[in-house]
Amino acid sequence: MNNTVSLKLRENTMNNNKWTFTLLTAAVAALSGCGGGGGDGASDAHGFLSLGISDGPIHEAQKVCITFTDIELKPMNGASTTLTLSSPEKINLLDFQGTNTMPILTSEQLPAGQYEWMRLGVDAVRGSNGGMGDTGDPNVCDGEASYIVMNDNAVHNIYVPSGENNGLKLHGGYTVPVNDQVSLTAEFDLGKSMTAPPGQSPDVMLRPTIKLVNNNEVGTLTGQVANALAEADACQPSVYVFNDGVVPNGIEDEIEDADDPVATAMVAARDQADGTVQWHYTIGFLLAGHYEAAFTCDGSAFEPANGLPAQISTGATETVDFAAPTT
User: Fold this and answer.
1) CATH of domain 220-319
2) Tens digit of pLDDT for each residue in 59-87?
3) What is the pTM of this model?
4) Which residues, other chains included, contact 252 with Cβ-Cβ below 8 Å and sequence gap of 6+?
5) Which of 123, 154, 124, 122 is nearest to 136 (CA)?
6) How far apart, in whole angstroms, are the C-alpha atoms of residue 11 and residue 245?
7) Where are the beta strands (DSSP E) in 81-178?
8) Rounded to an integer, what distance in angstroms lies between the CA atom of residue 185 and that of residue 167?
9) Domain boundaries in the chain?
C-alpha cells in the first residue's frame, strides 16, 4: 500500500438514524447577541440548521468508522455554541457516498446570523485503541474510538492531527436565516484525506480537510467509464476532479495544496439486464464552477492526461463520460 489510502463508499438509506444533542445553555446565551441575518435584527431572532455527512469512496477498506462526540458552531460575533452528543456516535463513512448523506442535525434551532466555522468533535487520538473490540462485521462499527478496517481485515487506529483539541474544523462561512433553514453537508473525501505516513504505523491519519458546503450552491458530476479503461489489469478505477486549469496529478503527501483534486470517486460496476457490465461514477456536492475531470487506475497516470472539462451548475447534474483511447 502506498502512503495514500484510497477509500470506497457504498449506498445506504439509514436516513432515520438521528443524533440526540444537549444544547449548552451558557453557549446559547452568548450566541443570542449575534443578532439575525435579516428581519429586524432582534437579539432573539432564530433560524434552523440541518447538517448531513457524505463521503467520497476508497478501494482498500471494508469500513471507516469515525466516532463523533459533539459539534461546535462559531458565529461571526460572539462565543461559540457546542451541541454535545448524549453519547458518542459511530458512523461508517463508507455507507454514504455520491449524493447520499447521513443526517446529523435536522432543523436544529439556532440564533440567526452569520457563522464563521464549524467543528466536528471526534474520538481520534494517535496511539489510541481504535478498533479494539470490533467483531468483524463489515456492516457494523462496534469497535472503540475511530478506526479503519482494510480489505485484508487489518485494523488500524485513526487519528486526526490535533484532533484531541480541535477535532475536524470545517472552515467556510454560512448564514442561519431568520425564520428559515440552511442545509449544509460536511463532505469527507477519504481518497484525499486518509494517509498512512511513514513511521506512524499502525496508525492511519485523517487530514482535517473536510469541505462544508451549502446544499443550495452545489451540483453533481456523473458519467460512464469505458470497460477497456475500468477493467485494465490491476486497475482500481477512480475519477479525480480538479480546479479549472489544473493538470491532473496524484496526491503526493499528507499536505493539501492548490493542485490536489477537489474530489475523488470510485468507479463501480453495474450489471445490465443483457448480462454485460457498465462502469459508472457519481460525485455529489461540487460547488458550481468549472473543473477538469480525469480517469485513473492508480492515482498517478490519468486519461486523458489534461482531463475533460466539467461545468457544474447549482442543482444540476453534469455528465462526463470517459471513452477508451483511440490510439
Assistant:
1) 2.60.40
2) 889 999 999 999 999 999 899 999 887 78
3) 0.79
4) none
5) 154
6) 32
7) 81-92, 102-111, 113-122, 147-150, 155-159, 168-176
8) 17
9) 21-209, 220-319
